[in-house]
Amino acid sequence: MVRAAVLPAVGAPLEIAEIDLPDPGPGQVRVRLVAAGVCHSDLSLSNGTMRLPVPAVLGHEGAGTVVAVGEGVTRVAPGDAVVLNWAPACGSCHACTLGEIWLCANALSGAAHVYAHRASDGTDLHPGLNVAAFAEETVVTESCILPAPDGVPLTEAALLGCAVLTGYGAVHHAAQVREGETVAVYGVGGVGLAALQSARVAGASRIVAVDVSAAKEELARAAGATEFLIASETTAREIRGLTGKQGVDVAIECVGRASTIRTAWDSTRRGGRTTVVGIGGKDQQVTFNALEIFHWGRTLSGCVYGNADPARDVPVLAEHVREGRLDLGMLVTERIGLEDIPAAFDNMLAGKGGRALVMF
């Protein structure tokens, strides 16, 4: 039996339950988790902002050790350390043929499958975001596996699977921050902290962190922020004041709220770039008038999974970690057990802390 955090229905509280996890079939890999990050996307699945089949075992940012492989698996063997990739590209859809694998139309197809059953009553369970990392062990397709990089602690390597890859990709791929540019990062959670560090790696000359909580300032500055602002109605004006009345070159929005997206846009210079990483609900409407779009000449773009290629980017991130340019450990503000995930959700809603890491 395997202990897991089960979401029985949208809007229902998580339940810690034992599940029956089958042996890996053809092309599948069984992984014993060592750590899993608690991401805002998990919260979005639990409250219905994002829709995937339930009942499900959530968790999509994890790392562990291979314990068994199915027929035909060639990438890994029992005993190998691995990082989970929750959005494997199919390689054949329209987006994939364009090289935009982060937009793969079939990336989440695995979430519709039944991968395990609740031990108490045999209820079918789906793997939330493909990999079901909120469990002591999981079974995933081989395409959801990345080799864990050498020289990176396996517990911290879990963060490479979402928070760090997303924050790094938002800066380097989506916004394409250049050396000497000015950057504002809205939201100092796990992804925001990774974006701050990545802006520093990119050589940004000024990095402004914005958050609703004053308690985040020390964390933000440790990640690379040169200034810290408490989010308010005057944030955009304050940022323009810090940048010669121009605004920053790039704003990275990691919250997913209409008002924050609008403020991020307003805080960029004429011709500036705003990249939206946060996942907001359909009720979050952002409005612009036609004249300001023409006048300001700004760019507003979405960002999915950091517009990243995990197979290409994880080794790059690992090198930054080994050389001391990225600090994975500083993203983690609490280490918890499975039963503490609901409290971690509450902390995210309250804007507290960075990344919570489930330890197995």
What does this structure look like?
The structure is a single chain. With 360 residues, the chain is α/β, with parallel strands linked by helices. Helices cover 26% and strands 27% of the residues. The strands form 3 sheets. Strands 3, 5, 6, 9, 10, 17 and 18 form a 7-stranded mixed beta sheet that branches. The protein has a 6-stranded parallel beta sheet with strand order 13-12-11-14-15-16, sandwiched between helices. Helix 5 (190-202) links the parallel strand 11 and strand 12. Helix 4 crosses helix 5 and helix 4 (163-174) packs across helix 10. The longest helix has 13 residues, at 190-202. It is globular and about 60 Å long. The two termini are 15 Å apart. 50% of the residues are buried. The mean pLDDT is 96.
Give me the strand/helix succession.
EEEHEEEHEEEEHHEHEHEHEHEHEHEHE
Beta percentage is 25-35%
Proportion of helical residues? 25-40%
Rg, please? 20 Å
Query: What is the average per-residue confidence, as pLDDT, rounded to a whole number?
Result: 96
Can you count the helices? 11
Given as residue ranges, the uncertain stretches (5+ residues, pLDDT < 50) are none
Distance between the termini: 15 Å
Please tally the β strands and state the result. Answer: 18
Shape: globular
> Given the helix and strand composition, which structural class is it?
alpha/beta
**Biggest sheet overview:** 7 strands, mixed
Question: Keywords, please?
Answer:
360 residues, alpha/beta, seven-stranded mixed beta sheet, 18 strands, 26% helix, globular
